Amino acid sequence: MNNSNYLTSQSGAPIADDQNSLSAGERGPLLLQDWHLIEKLAHFNRERIPERIVHAKGTGAYGTFTLTKDLSDYTIADHFNGVGKQTETFVRFSTVGGEMGSADAERDPRGFAVRFYTAQGNHDIVGNNTPTFFLRDGIKFPDFIHTQKRHPQTNLKDPQAMWDFWSLNPEAMHQVTILMSDRGIPANYRQMHGYGSHTFSLWNAEGERFWVKFHFKSQQGVVNLTNEQADKLKGIDPDSSQRDMVVAITDGNFPKWTVNVQIMPEADANTYHINPFDLTKVWPHSDYPLIEIGELELNRLPQNYFAEVEQVALAPSNLVPGVGASPDKMLQARLFAYADAQRYRIGANYNQLPVNCPHATQANHHQRGGAMAGTQCPYHGSQTGGDASVNYGPSTAEPKLEDASKLIEPPLRIDGEAARYSRYDQDDFTQAGNLYRMFSEDEKQRLVATIAGSLSQTSVDVQQRMLAHFSKADADYGQRIQSALGLVV
């Protein structure tokens, strides 16, 4: 009998009747022995995995990264060596604070996460549409996100908590200014820039290390929405950014980004006037100019949103030989937190799913068991390699592996005493002020109106603390916020 001619259970057994439950008589109760009913209901109850705590609502697409500048002087990473080399990519865009059903046009940072399916494994750059962030230390991240979510009693968004937290953490000033400015509501995902945001490391065949920041510049230009435009769009089409991406790729208008890097020699970090590992800061382009290295094009939509976008498990810990981490405290925390979140959401073997397994190379490890063990990568089959009965190494049961010493990251010199350093960079205001002074008069007016509209919903002491921060960034900045709030200092 050919089961392909029948509806079957998950185990492949043909189903005789998919429309009527097994009952004790026509009007009687159902029987627990109706295993097909149980299977359907049990699977239905589990069709949704826990949504991401942040970046819950997103859009994904496949594409290609084409290298236009060889970086072998800086890194041994395969996808950055050889002009013209093409690497398959997957990009997930997202809002940050909203739930799965929230609108795309919210005032919120946008996630901009890029996966390179390289010949040496998956390399993920899990960034945002901003070059900075609100915090410099990951220990504050859970508290910060709690302020962006709903109040535990009222289940409503809570401006008091949000601004109270920011007023007590002036390191957020740069990112707050970005978020509340015209840059705070991208019109869609195609017409915005992306950034790796963190500082990462590169190392070359000579063992030299360089610090690097990644920039993705939209070739479609940058378009943002005003508050009024966003409010209308949220009511007309809550899925506006998702729809925009689907329509563009379906119509063959493949979005593209120019990929750039900033590169800093390792020794410069010791003397540079800005802490290069502080995520609340940017590296001035006058000191470390952008170097164009390639082009990212998105040209293929996923076939199954849940399997490929909802279950994609991007993580900054997905690094490859030639690309490493840095002492960036936020990055250090994310190296653990993101992969751990995926294990919780999806299961221990999430990397065996097609969207997560390496597409251009074979995985080979000793991890066995756990949920979804045995899931086959459609690109390379088994994700263990070698003898599946062996779960340890070294082992005489498996062939000797190639010497990988040439792939080892050069040592990083670490100085200082182990302690909890609270304020290693006192200047939280200069770059925020510089950004404010870049804005046109109209942009400043809209920035002030947006801040005042939200900050006015908080207590006076929070307003006073924030006003002091705005004034330290720029006296005019603070004066305008004070006037808009009607505060007497």
TrEMBL record:
Keyword RNA-binding: no
SUPFAM superfamilies associated with the record: Heme-dependent catalase-like
Keywords recorded for this protein, A-Z: Heme, Hydrogen peroxide, Iron, Metal-binding, Oxidoreductase, Peroxidase
Residues annotated as domain Catalase core: 8-401
Sequence segments annotated as region (Disordered): 1-20
UniProt superkingdom: Bacteria
One of the record's GO molecular function terms: heme binding
Record-listed heme binding positions: 338
Cofactor(s) this protein requires: heme
Swiss-Prot/TrEMBL GO biological process terms: hydrogen peroxide catabolic process; response to hydrogen peroxide
GO terms for cellular component: cytoplasm
Active site: 55, 128
Swiss-Prot/TrEMBL catalytic activity: 2 H2O2 = O2 + 2 H2O
EC number: 1.11.1.6
Classification via Pfam families: Catalase, Catalase-rel
Family: Belongs to the catalase family.
Protein name: Catalase
